[in-house]
Design brief:
Mean pLDDT: 84
Radius of gyration: 15 Å
Largest sheet: 4 strands, antiparallel
Strand order of the largest sheet: 2-3-1-4
Shape: elongated
């Protein structure tokens, strides 16, 4: 998950980059989406979820330069730790 605020005037290009990221993720079998924060409308949250790699296999990259471009277009950019969901029956 990423949290970022586009720099002034960068939103049209940010929108293009987010669309490209979504297409690339879809092509890799992942799901990618972004939300605008309702409390802080200048802030976006980008999420990605997908399959775990096979045991012992390295994780394949999902994106090309989209994340770097989002960082360059942002006045604030934060990576957030991965969120892991567990099935309800796996909980103690």
């Amino acid at each position: 998950m990423l949290i970022f605020e586009p720099a002034a005037g960068a939103e049209p290009r940010v929108d293009e980059v987010l669309r490209a990221a979504r297409r690339r993720a879809d092509g890799a079998g992942w799901h990618c989406w972004a939300y605008r924060n309702e409390i802080h409308p200048g802030e976006f949250m980008l999420f990605i979820e997908g399959p775990e790699p096979e045991p012992g296999a390295p994780a394949a990259p999902v994106f090309g330069d989209e994340i770097g471009e989002l960082r360059a277009l942002s006045r604030r950019f934060e990576t957030v730790r991965s969120l892991t969901e567990y099935a309800l029956d796996d909980q103690p």
